[in-house]
Specification:
The chain has a single domain (18-496), classed as Alkaline Phosphatase, subunit A (3-Layer(aba) Sandwich), CATH 3.40.720. The longest helix has 25 residues, at 467-491. It is of the alpha/beta class. The chain has helices spanning 44-52, 66-75, 79-82, 118-124, 183-195, 220-233, 255-277, 317-320, 347-354, 371-374, 437-454, 467-491; strands at residues 19-25, 54-56, 59-60, 102-103, 128-133, 151-153, 203-208, 240-243, 246-249, 284-290, 324-327, 336-338, 342-343, 382-387, 398-403, 406-411, 417-421, 460-461. It has twelve helices and 18 strands. The radius of gyration is 22 Å and the shape is globular. It has an eight-stranded mixed sheet with strand order 6-5-7-1-10-11-2-12, sandwiched between helices.
Length: 508
């Protein structure tokens, strides 16, 4: 356990410290939420949370996949600086054997022990700390209890729930409930049980859902509800189109995934209602966000992120733009919005300031407190991403810089750079790099300087690469993958759809 200076953590505010509930969804795209435009999914409790405080319209995850994003939240540092740049468990270096142009870089498989996490900082500042759900930042000596959390319910090395979303969970850090018990509901109840414990100390409760990561699983009741809803709206004849490397879902009408969304939203409601019943809602900061974009390609192909391009694992807005809601009683105005650029590294310094604790600039070096934004201020900000890997969802090894209206993407396979005016072209349809060569030069220089400063690893060519074989692989995306997906997802909506033996194994 790292010990912090008592002096550096003296409260800077005289008032009682606020409680904190941090809710992190897994693989939830911003366009999955009804308050962000979805007309198929129903998320009334998350919508209410968004309206209770400030909604950041330019909120981002620190990476397009999970482990790096989670490391950034815990550390206040960019993934490239920590050297956790891919989901922990992904192949890298010469172990990567999928016939690609470059070798994904090596990366750390555990959150470094010398990092003082936000949980440790809050704990040493007088908070009791609790974790429930997905961790995916290492095992052995790198689980939640090794990084500042006094209680851990379900957090271990796996990135998906080993037993699925219904008990038995097969989770070494979570006891099984009755057969068929819902995992998100269980995690919400565990969180509320902890919150209601008598204590003179404020709490920091981190509820990290495994939802809505694959496998996609639901109940027959919820499947039927959303099957009927999709049918009434009119079934699509075509759900997928090919975007460079993968088939990408264009329609939100998967009844299994919609059921998962509703279950997670119900779990959020349990937490919010529990806070209110306990009389804690007026002194509790509640945060809601996701670790990366929705799964529109790869994995379960479960949702569409339109009008954003791409989704989880990909370098476009669909992969990194997130729901980003902060409700801080006495600080945020209900129903307020901010255009301030914000990312996962910012939660750490923001929570320290809201808790009346001094900043730790040598720790959360890449984060910026959002408290001024919560009070209505806005300042210029540049954001960076570095993903030197191939995503299972079709993502390409790349680095990104977002500054003002523009976003530059640098690709490591061939060194090309794309430029998008995101403020005018949210779907990243038009590459304007040729029209704005001066902006490309300026942003490229800034990006290179940043990558050098954080010690980013750069992918190198794979001598095993076979271009003819790659051509055939990409052709199969159109000839084989897309027809298979069209058939499979149409089947989910048939009245006689046959899931696995138990409904909580409806789709593996």
């Amino acid at each position: 356990m790292k010990l912090l200076s008592t002096i550096c953590l003296l409260p800077i505010l005289a008032a009682a410290k606020p409680n904190i509930v941090f809710i992190l969804a897994d693989d939830l795209g911003i366009k999955d939420l009804s308050c962000e435009g979805s007309t198929f999914h129903e998320t009334p409790h998350i919508d209410a949370l968004a309206k209770s405080g400030m909604r950041f319209t330019n909120g981002y995850s620190a990476c397009q996949v999970c482990s790096p994003s989670r490391a950034a939240i815990m550390s206040g540092q960019y993934p490239a600086r920590i050297q956790i740049t891919d989901w922990i468990g992904a192949a890298s270096g010469t172990k990567w054997n999928r016939n690609d142009r470059v070798l994904p870089t090596e990366y750390l498989h555990n959150l470094p022990s010398d990092i003082i996490t936000v949980a440790e900082a809050l704990k040493d500042g007088g908070y009791r700390t609790f974790f429930a759900g997905k961790w995916h930042l290492g095992g052995e000596r790198s689980k939640p209890e090794h990084h500042g959390f006094e209680v851990n319910k379900g957090g271990h090395h796996r990135g998906s729930p080993p037993g699925g979303f219904f008990s038995p969970y097969k989770n070494p850090d979570l006891t099984d409930g009755p057969p068929g018990e819902s995992l998100p509901i269980r995690l919400a109840n565990e969180t509320i049980d902890y919150i209601k414990q008598d204590s003179e100390k404020p709490f920091f409760a981190f509820l990290s859902f495994y939802s809505v990561h694959g496998p996609i699983q639901t109940t027959p009741e919820l499947w039927e509800k959303y099957r009927k809803k999709a049918t009434k709206a009119g079934l699509a004849q075509e759900r997928f189109k090919v975007d460079r490397t993968k088939s990408v879902r264009q329609v939100q009408d998967c009844p299994i995934y919609a059921g998962m969304m509703e279950s997670m939203d119900d779990a959020v409601g349990i937490v919010l209602n529990g806070l209110k019943k306990a009389g804690l809602d007026e002194n509790t900061i509640v945060i809601f966000t996701s670790d990366n974009g929705g799964v529109s390609s790869g994995d379960a192909f479960a949702t569409s992120c339109l009008p954003l391009r791409g989704g989880k694992g990909r370098q476009w807005e669909g992969g990194i733009r997130q729901p980003f809601y902060i409700s801080a009683p006495g600080v945020t105005m209900p129903g307020s919005t901010s255009e301030q650029f914000a990312t996962g590294t910012d939660f750490y310094p923001t929570l320290l300031e809201l808790a009346g604790l001094k900043q730790l600039p040598d720790q959360h070096v890449d984060g910026r407190s959002l408290v001024p934004a919560l009070r209505g201020e806005k300042s210029d900000r540049t954001l960076y991403w570095h993903y030197p890997h191939y995503g299972n969802q079709g993502g390409e090894p790349s680095s990104i810089i977002r500054k003002g209206d523009f976003k530059l993407i640098r690709y490591y396979e061939d060194g090309r750079e794309e430029l998008y005016n995101v403020s005018k072209d949210i779907g990243e349809v038009s590459d304007v790099s040729k029209r704005h060569s001066n902006i490309v030069t300026r942003l490229s220089t800034e990006l290179t300087a940043h990558l050098t400063e954080v010690g980013a690893k750069i992918p190198q060519p794979d001598p095993r690469f076979d271009p003819e074989k790659k051509k055939k692989q990409l052709e199969q995306v159109t000839s084989r993958e897309k027809p298979r997906l069209e058939k499979q997802h149409a089947n989910f909506l048939k009245p006689d759809f046959k899931p696995n033996k138990t409904w909580w194994g409806s789709k593996d």
